[in-house]
Design a protein that fits this description.
- By secondary structure, the protein is α+β, with helices and mostly antiparallel strands.
- Among the domains are: 165 residues, Four Helix Bundle (Hemerythrin (Met), subunit A) (Up-down Bundle); 93 residues, no CATH class; 99 residues.
- Helix content is 61%, strand content 11%.
- The strands form 2 sheets. Strands 2, 3, 4, 5, 6 and 7 form a 6-stranded antiparallel sheet that branches. The protein has a 4-stranded antiparallel sheet with strand order 1-10-9-8.
- Helix 2 runs parallel beside helix 6.
Length: 663
C-alpha cells in the first residue's frame, strides 16, 4: 500500500505543478491577486506531496520490500541501515525523486522568502519554476517510475552497486543535486524577468543569494565527490576529467561567472544581457549534466546505465527548457536598457575580464566533453579526450585569470587606478616571488614551473588578505583601531576574501601533489619493506575480516619514519556476498597536510600481493580549499545586504521597463 501512496503522491504533485505553471502567470498578466496567490499554496502542496513520495520509497528500502522492482535491483536485506537509506538515491529512479524533491523545496523557499518581491514577478517566478517541476515529474511517471510492483516478489535483492556503499555517497549526490537544482531559481528569475520586461539592480539583488547558495552546494558536492573517488576507487587520483565529472564542473564555472556578473549588475546596473544569459546557461548546463549521466551515452562509474527512451525524453526537456528560454531571450534582449558606463581599468572591467576567462574555460571543458560523443555519433569513431587536452587548453586560460583575481577588489568602481592597486598588492607579490625562488632552490625534481604554481596560490591567498588590510587600513594607525575597522567590514567582504583565498589553497594543493608526489608499484610479501617519501612501510601480513554483507582481505602495514613507528595502514580487498564484485578499500594516513596512500592489487604467487603506494604532499589542500570557499559563501549569505529578497521599491520603479535601443 505504501508504494501506491508514493505513486499517487507523484501524480498529485504533477497536477499541482500544472496548476502552478498556469494560474499565477495568468494572474500576473491580469493583475489578479487571487490567482497570483495560488503560486505559493501550490508550491507548498508540491513539497508535501513529493516528500510523501520520497518517504514512501525510503520506507520500502528500510523494510526491504522486494515486491518493488527498484528495491530488488538496488538493495539487499543484509545491507547496513545507512546504505539502505542511501540506496534510495543510488539509482536512476530514486535519484530523480530526490532531484524533484530538492526542486520543489527550492520552489517553496521562493514562496516563503519572496515576500519582498513584486507580486507579479513572484507569481511569474513560481510559474516558471513549476514548468521545470512538471516536466521532470512527467519524466519520472512516464519512464522512471520507482514504485513499479512485481507480481512475484523474490526472496532477496541483488544489492546496491558495491562502490556506492560508502558514507561519502550519503552526502555527495544530495549536495550535488542541491547545486544543480539551486540554479533553477536563477533560471526562473531570468525567464520571469524577460516575461515581465524588468531587469534591474533590484532583480540582481534578488537573484544573487539564490545563485550563491547553489554555488556553495555545488562546490561542496564536487569536492566531496572528488574525495570519494580518490579514496574509494583506489587509483590514487583526485580528478580524471571524466565526462561526468566535467558535467558538474561546467555549471560551476558558469555559476561562478554569474555570481560576478550579478555583482556588477547590482552595483552599477550594467551587464544586464550577460547576467540574464548566464542565468539561463548555468541551469542549462545542469540539465546537460543530467542528460549525460542518464542518457546512456556515457560509460562511467558516475553514470546511470539507462535505456535510450529516457535519454530521448531528457533531450526533449533540454530542447523545451533551454530552447524556449533562449528564444525568449533573443526576443526580449533588445528591450533591456543599457546600464552605467565604466572604464576598462575599473572593478567592473576586472569582473568582465573574469567572466570572459571563465566563459572561455567553460567552453573548453564543454568542447572536450562533447566532441568525442559528437564524433562517435557522426562517424562511429571512438576517441578519448583526457588530461593532455585539458592541461594544454584549460590551464593557459586559468593562469591569467588567477593572476588578475587580486586586482579586482583593489580597483574602484567606474574608473580605477591600476598603479595604485599594484602598490597595495606589492607585499603579496613580493612574498609570492620569494616563495617561488625558495621552493626552486630547496626542492629538487618536479616540473620547472611547479614553483610558479605554488607562488600563484600564495599570491591568491595574500592578495585576498591584502584587500581586507587595505579596506580596514590595518597598518595605517593603531592596531586596535584597524582591527575594529576590519570587524566592522561587511560580511560579504570577508566572504569574498575567504572564497578567493580558498582558490589559492586549492591551487597549492593541486600543484604540489601533481609535481611532487611519489608512487611505487611493487609486489610485497609479509615482512617486506617499502621506502617512499621518507617513510618505511612494512607489510606485517594479511588478515581476513567479515562485514555485514562483505568479506575483506586486509593488508596490515606498519608505518615508520626515521626508524620510529608512527602508525599503521590497513588497506583491503573487499568482496561483496550478493554480487561477488571486488572493490578496493584504500589505507590512508594523514601526516600534517600530506598523506600516505596504499591500495592492494591482485594476489601473486607465493603469498605476494601487488601494492600501490603513494606519498602525496599537501594533497589535503585540494579539498580544504573548497571548504574555505564554501565558508566564504556562507559568510556572504549572512550579510544583511545579501539576504534573500530586497527592500520593496517605490511603486514608480516597479513599472516594467519600456523597450529601449539595444546595447
Amino acid at each position: 500500500m505504501i508504494p501506491e501512496i508514493g505513486h499517487y503522491a507523484l501524480v498529485l504533485a504533477l497536477t499541482m505543478a500544472l496548476v502552478q505553471s498556469v494560474l499565477p502567470l495568468w494572474g500576473a498578466r491580469r493583475g489578479d491577486a487571487g490567482l497570483m496567490a495560488t503560486g505559493a499554496s501550490t508550491a507548498y502542496a508540491q513539497l508535501l506531496l513529493v516528500l510523501v513520495a520520497f518517504l514512501a520509497l525510503t520506507t520500502a528500502y528500510l523494510q526491504s520490500d522486494f515486491s518493488v522492482l527498484n528495491v530488488v535491483q538496488n538493495s539487499h536485506s543484509a545491507k547496513p541501515l545507512l546504505y539502505k537509506i542511501t540506496g534510495v538515491w543510488g539509482n536512476h529512479e530514486g535519484s530523480m525523486v530526490l532531484w524533484v524533491l530538492i526542486l520543489v523545496f527550492f520552489g517553496a523557499l521562493v514562496a516563503i522568502f519572496g515576500g519582498n518581491l513584486p507580486e507579479g514577478l513572484r507569481a511569474t517566478v513560481l510559474s516558471v519554476q513549476a514548468w521545470t517541476t512538471a516536466v521532470f515529474l512527467l519524466f519520472i511517471l512516464a519512464t522512471s517510475n520507482p514504485f513499479v510492483r512485481l507480481s512475484e516478489a523474490p526472496i532477496e535483492g541483488t544489492d546496491l552497486n558495491p562502490i556506492l556503499q560508502d558514507p561519502g555517497l550519503a552526502f555527495h549526490p544530495p549536495l550535488l543535486y542541491a547545486g544543480y537544482v539551486g540554479f533553477s531559481v536563477a533560471f526562473s528569475f531570468a525567464v520571469a524577468a524577460l516575461i515581465e520586461g524588468r531587469v534591474d539592480a533590484a532583480w540582481a539583488r534578488w537573484v544573487r543569494p539564490w545563485t550563491l547558495a547553489a554555488w556553495c552546494f555545488l562546490t561542496l558536492g564536487i569536492a566531496l565527490g572528488s574525495y570519494w573517488a580518490y579514496y574509494e576507487l583506489g587509483w590514487g587520483g583526485w580528478w580524471f576529467w571524466d565526462p561526468v565529472e566535467n558535467a558538474s564542473f561546467l555549471p560551476w564555472l558558469s555559476g561562478t561567472a554569474l555570481l560576478h556578473s550579478a555583482i556588477v549588475m547590482e552595483k552599477r546596473n550594467a551587464l544586464k544581457v550577460w547576467t540574464v544569459l548566464l542565468a539561463i546557461l548555468t541551469f542549462s548546463l545542469s540539465l546537460l549534466g543530467t542528460f549525460l549521466v542518464r542518457s546512456g551515452v556515457l560509460t562511467s562509474v558516475h553514470a546511470f546505465a539507462t535505456d535510450p527512451t529516457r535519454g530521448v525524453f531528457i533531450l526533449l526537456i533540454l530542447v523545451f527548457a533551454v530552447g524556449g528560454a533562449l528564444a525568449l531571450f533573443a526576443w526580449r534582449a533588445s528591450s533591456l536598457q543599457s546600464g552605467g558606463l565604466f572604464a576598462p581599468i575599473s572593478r567592473e572591467g576586472a569582473l568582465v575580464l573574469n567572466n570572459l576567462l571563465l566563459s572561455a574555460a567553460c567552453g573548453v571543458v564543454l568542447i572536450g566533453t562533447l566532441y568525442p560523443l559528437a564524433l562517435e555519433a557522426v562517424t562511429g569513431q571512438k576517441i578519448s579526450v583526457g588530461a593532455p587536452f585539458f592541461d594544454a587548453t584549460f590551464a593557459p586560460i586559468m593562469v591569467p585569470l588567477l593572476l588578475a583575481v587580486p586586482f579586482g577588489p583593489m580597483l574602484a568602481w567606474k574608473r580605477g587606478d591600476l598603479y595604485a592597486a599594484s602598490q597595495r598588492l606589492f607585499a603579496a607579490a613580493a612574498i609570492a616571488l620569494v616563495c617561488m625562488i625558495a621552493l626552486y632552490a630547496v626542492v629538487s625534481g618536479g616540473p620547472v614551473l611547479a614553483p610558479f604554481g605554488i607562488g600563484l596560490g600564495v599570491w591568491l591567498i595574500l592578495g585576498a588578505i591584502s584587500e581586507i588590510t587595505f579596506r580596514s587600513k590595518l597598518f595605517s594607525g593603531p592596531l586596535s583601531t584597524g582591527l575594529r575597522r576590519a570587524a566592522g567590514l561587511p560580511r560579504a567582504a570577508w566572504g569574498t576574501m575567504l572564497a578567493h583565498a580558498g582558490v589559492g589553497v586549492t591551487v597549492i594543493g593541486i600543484v604540489a601533489v601533481t609535481a611532487y608526489e611519489r608512487e611505487e608499484i611493487v609486489s610485497m610479501k609479509p615482512g617486506d619493506t617499502l621506502d617512499i617519501g621518507g617513510y618505511e612501510l612494512t607489510l606485517d601480513g594479511f588478515a581476513p575480516r567479515e562485514g555485514p554483507n562483505y568479506s575483506d582481505t586486509v593488508g596490515i602495514f606498519t608505518v615508520r619514519r626515521g626508524g620510529a613507528e608512527i602508525g599503521r595502514l590497513e588497506p583491503a580487498r573487499r568482496v561483496y556476498v550478493a554480487t561477488g564484485m571486488p572493490t578496493t578499500e584504500t589505507g590512508i594516513r594523514t601526516q600534517g597536510l600530506s598523506q600516505l596512500y596504499v591500495s592492494l592489487g591482485d594476489a601473486g604467487s607465493e603469498g605476494a600481493m601487488a601494492v600501490r603506494a603513494y606519498y602525496k604532499p599537501l594533497v589535503t589542500l585540494i579539498w580544504l580549499g573548497p571548504l574555505v570557499m564554501v565558508i566564504g559563501g556562507v559568510v556572504s549569505l549572512t550579510d544583511r545586504r545579501l539576504r534573500v529578497g530586497a527592500p520593496r521599491r517605490a511603486k514608480a520603479s516597479e513599472k516594467p521597463i519600456q523597450p529601449a535601443p539595444a546595447e
